[in-house]
Amino acid sequence: MIEVKNLVKQYGDHTAVDDLSFTVGEGQIYGFLGPNGAGKSTTMNIMTGFLGLTSGQVLINGHDITEEPEEARRCIGYLPEQPPLYTDMTPREYLTFAAELKSVPKDEINGQVEEIMKLVRITEMQDRLIKNLSKGYRQRVGLAQALIGFPEIIILDEPTVGLDPKQIIEIRDLIKSLAGKHTVILSSHILSEVQEICDHILIIHHGKLIADGTPRELEQRMRSSVVELTAKTEDEEAVRAILRTVPGLKSAACQRPKNGEMLIRVTPEQDADVREALFRAFAGGDVPLLMLRPENVSLESIFIQLTADRTYKWVRRKRAKPVEKEAEAE
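Above: the chain sequence. Below: its structure as C-alpha cells.
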C-alpha cells in the first residue's frame, strides 16, 4: 500500500527526516508517533506530495510520489492539522468544490457528497456557513474533504487537537469506522487515543524510525519485570520480613496503607519471574494478597523510554567526573 524507502529531507544543514524506511499494509489503522520536531508532519507532507524529498523514494500503491504525483495523490485523502476550509462556504458547497478539484465525475459528485456527509454526520449542518460551525463540526468537514473520491489511504495529522472530550470520542469512533475500507495513518500526541484505535504503531525520533509493531508487540518488547502487589495489612515490618524470605529480589517499595491495604512494588534481579514465590511467601506469612500482577506498561511509558534524549544525561556524567576526582583528592 505505502512504501517509504531511505527517505531523507534536509533544510539546509538540518536533517528533518534521516534515512527513514517503513511499509504500511492495507486496511489497518497506523499510529504515527514522535516528539515535536521528530519529522512526522514533514514525512506526511512528503507522502501526500505537498513537499519534495531530498533523497529516497515513496511509493503509493506502486506509484512513485515524485515520478507519478497525480496517480499517487489520487490514492490519498489528507487532513492536515489545520483543515484547509473555506469558511464562507457551506459544507455542501465546500465538499462539492473539493470533489471538482479531485476530478470526481460530475454525475457522481452529488451522490458522493451526500454519502460522505452522512458518514461523518454533518448532514444537518450542510447549509450553514462553515465559519459558524463549532470546532468539532469543522473537523468533521475537514475529514469529509479527505474522504472525497473514496481514496484507499487516509492520512490524518492531529485530527482531534483542540476538541472537547465528547468531540474526541465522536471523531475517534468515526476513524475506527474507516478501518477495513481504508488504510488510515494517524498522527497524534494523545497516546491513549493511539493505543485504543490503532492496529500498528510507528515511532520516529530525530527523523529515524525507532519502533515498529502492534501495541501488543511493543508492550512485550518493553515489558517491565516489576511486580505490583496489594496486601491486606498495615504492618510494613511484617511485609518486609516476608519479602526478605523471597530469593532474587533487587528492591521493594511500600506505600503508606489506605483502608487497611498496602501497595507494594517489587523489582526482581535479572528480570526473574518471582510471582509464584511472592504468592507462597505471603500465604505462608498469613498476609492475604488482594492483587498480584506485572506492572502495566502503557504506550506513554514506552514512548518516553524510546524517545528519551540521552545527550543531556551523557553531558552531566561527562562533567561530573572531574568534580568526583577533586572530592577524592580533598
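Residues 310-330 have pLDDT under 50 and may be disordered.
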